[in-house]
Amino acid sequence: MTFTMGGVHPEENKFSEHAAIVTLPLPKQAIIPLGQNLGAPPKPLVKKGDEVKTGQLIAKGEAFISANLHSPVAGKVARLDESVDSSGYRRMAIHIDVTGDEWDENIDTSPDVVREITLGKQEIIQRIKDCGIVGLGGATFPTHVKLMIPDGKKAEFLIINGVECEPYLTSDHRLMLEKGEEMLIGIKILMKALEVDTAIIGIENNKPDAIKHLNELCIRYQGIRVQPLKVKYPQGGEKQLIKATVNREVPSGKLPLEVGCVVSNVGTAFAVYEAVQKNKPLVERVVTVTGKSVRKPSNFLVRIGTPVAELIQAAEGLPENTGKVINGGPMMGKALTTIDVPVTKGSSGILVMNKEESNRQRQNPCVRCSKCTEVCPMGLEPYLLAKLAKLALYEKAEKEMVMDCIECGSCQFTCPSQLPLLDFLRLGKQRVGHLIRTRK
Amino acid sequence: MNMFTISGSPHVHGDENVKKIMYTVVYAMIPAMLVSVYFFGLDAIRVLLVSVLSCLFFEWAIQKYIIKGPLTINDGSAVVAGILLAFNIPANIPWWIIVIGALVTIGVAKMSFGGLGKNPFNPALVGRVFMLISFPVQMTSWPIPKPILEGGFITDAVTGPTALGLLKEGVGAGKTIDQIMSDPEMPAYIDRLTGNMTGSLGEMSAIALILGGIYMVWRKVINWQLPVSIILTVFVFAGIFHLIDPQHYIDPMFHLFTGGLMLGAIYMATDMVSSPMNMSGKVLYGVGIGLLTIIIRLWGAYPEGISFAILIMNAFVPLINNSFKPKRFGLLTKK
Predict the structure, then answer these.
(1) Residue A378 scores a pLDDT above 50
(2) Do B185 and B95 fall within a single domain?
């Protein structure tokens, strides 16, 4: 099974798929940007000189779409100021000098698996909110908001994204293998909060070990099943995954709930388990460090706020011929300006690329081959949308549904003329978005 | 301090490029080229060489001295245009007519619009139609094929009409189909398949052309839907008339394997630049080409109509692109 429309097959290059998750030592200084979630950044609760413990609330999400932030280390707040984060912009961040790892006393840090779910629906959602859980697939949408189903809507399926369709990345794969049981408990918790009876874990066929492992565990967890999927990018896209698993199409401009689905990542399910069963806020995550020249492609369990440079160091250093460092995978990740930026809640991998892979090839004129249209998983015409954006014909671009673009990059990946289609599609989306907002 | 490259995603690229596509088309034309050399010997090589070299020369010269842009002859598109032009002309045509045809193909039909990717009409067809109108005698005297194995390295002065020419002439003279088919010059079915008949260089063997077409479909350079829609339309449309009056309209299989139909459907109509972008549009375009081809063949002044049919449909491509959109995700389920 897979989604029907478009899609591409990039080289998988999953070098680190057999590397077990290794816990990384604490950094000397943790840099915690405030804006780690989609929506409004939380308000800081600490000031310079404050002593904090691991897991202590340091910034509170007050807006409807916002998420709490907790200290990932124990130490002393060095300063609050603007520093460059993975987006390349200067944003407000809390810098903490690490003195140790003394956890907040309400947090259960034992390795025991807690299977019994004692909290009720509302308490679960509140706990997830308190613990600052966001979607760990990369979009960092606050999870508690997703769980609050508006009146008149009903969720039928919880779809768990274990696809990891980005080449190179293996953090979700390793998590499914090593924390499968905790993840299933997390899924049960989410099912309770959403009041759904069925959860489907979508996993691509290139991870047979994860499919087998979770299938065995699922016997003990009623209502959860694994759906193996044919490998195709961008299957991890929310709309594509829903199409692939339950064969429903989310209407243009609508949320998955419109077709009775809620989608969550496997990493999020694990974080939900830790929050609800262990009262542990989101202060660490699994990050893949990989690349063709990386000496030791690895999967690290790291604290939020650890500089990317330390992760690369732990993978035996930055290769000589490094040309580009990407936060995320090669298809949708962002190129970093510097490796001094910290790991945030949305970092799933660090990809180091060689100099010769780093630059785009020479462009040719569009030969109107229509391959971009064939591979677009949303049925759009990227060549046309790119041209409309270039010519600043934004109203026409809106009619041609530029806002439906999921920025998966399949068009640009395929383009035989090496045209920067997605660059222009992003420009178009940004301008059309502005147009729509000013119209209201 | 390390300086990193910054660019937007995606950071990887598939291994497709324009040059690869163009050379895939060239490889796909090798069987048909071999067939033409087999039947026309050195003359076929002469036409192919003159055509390809003059196309390359004009592309280079125009790019260098008029457009003053970077070198573009490496991208393979001029080679493809040159071979296609050669495929559309008789083997014994004087060399200077080929050069003029190449100038029209590259200079008028391609470079004057801005070069690769900008031409609204298929360049090789524009060149061919220009030659057909300007040099009607030379463009319609086809040499009799002489297989190399039977000692024919060059064609001789004996020329003959094409199967479609015989048909048009016969129908015009009021003969019945049976009378026309009994003409000793009319090629047998097996000859129409293998290419042992008079005709332009590349339209000889349907088998060789289909072979190349399958290769291009496999390499994803063309979609099978477009050539199939042309061929099916020709078959159905010609078939209807054949059923109405079999003594006045020949059977549809004859139309499929004579003239430039296979060449046009597989190699000319599928030209990326001048064909529609979306699948539904491609099929409509193919149906249009099929209908126009048969209309010209049955009732037009020329015995063969596929070149005109493709050029006429080329003109509709912008309109087709505007009104035939791909199926959008999430638009069908809207209540």
Answers:
(1) yes
(2) no
Residues of the domain holding B312: 162-202+222-323
**A8 to chain B: which residues are within 8 Å by CB?**
14
Chain B positions with Cβ closer than 8 Å to A: 2, 4-14, 16-18, 20-21, 75, 77, 114-118, 220, 272-273, 275, 277-278, 325-335
Q: Which residue in A325, A330, A365 is closest to B12 by CB distance?
A: A330
Q: Which CATH architecture has domain A1-23+106-359?
A: 3-Layer(aba) Sandwich (3.40)
Arch. (CATH architecture) of A24-100 = Beta Barrel (2.40)
Residue in A325, A378, A381 closest to B277 by CB: A381
Per-residue pLDDT at B334 exceeds 60: no
Q: Which of B153, B162, B157 is nearest to B204 (CA)?
A: B162
Residues of A in contact with B335 (CB under 8 A): 251
Q: Where in chain A is the domain with CATH 2.40.50.100?
A: 24-100
A93/A87 Cα distance (integer angstroms): 13
Both B174 and B281 in one domain: the answer is: yes
Tell me, what's the ipTM? 0.89
Identify the pLDDT of residue A189. Answer: 96
Closest-CA residue of B relative to A369 is B272
| A69-70 and A74-84 strand pairing | unpaired
Give yes or no: residues B265 and B183 share one domain: yes
User: Are B173 and B115 members of one domain?
Assistant: no
What pLDDT does residue B183 have?
A: 81
Total domains present in chain B: 2
Do the Cβ atoms of A259 and B333 come within 8 Å?
A: yes
Instruction: Tell me whether residue B151 is in a domain.
Output: no
pLDDT by residue (tens digit) across B291-317?
999 999 999 888 888 999 999 999 999
Question: Which of B7, B32, B28 has its CA nearest to residue B207?
Answer: B32
State pTM to two decimals.
0.91
> Is there a single domain that holds both residue B96 and residue B195?
no
Smallest Cβ distance to A365: which of B117, B332, B335?
B117
Q: Residues B85, B88, B94, B96: is their CA dihedral positive or negative?
A: negative
**Nearest CB to A336; choose among B4, B331, B334:** B4
- The strand order across the sheet containing A43-44 reads A43-44, A57-60, A69-70
Query: Taking a C-beta distance cutoff of 8 angstroms, is the pair A264, A158 a contact?
Result: yes
Give the minimum alpha-carbon distance from A231 to chain B in angstroms, rounded to a whole number. 16
Determine the residue of chain A that is closest to B272 in CA distance.
A369
Dihedral angle sign, alpha carbons of residues A328, A333, A338, A344: negative
Integer Cα distance of B260 and B84 in angstroms: 11
| Chain B contact set for A381 (CB, 8 A) | 277-278, 325-326
> Between chains, do A10 and B12 touch, taking CB under 8 Å as contact?
yes
pLDDT 10s digits, A217-276? 999 999 999 999 999 999 999 999 999 999 999 999 999 999 999 999 999 999 999 999
User: Are B181 and B134 within one domain?
Assistant: no
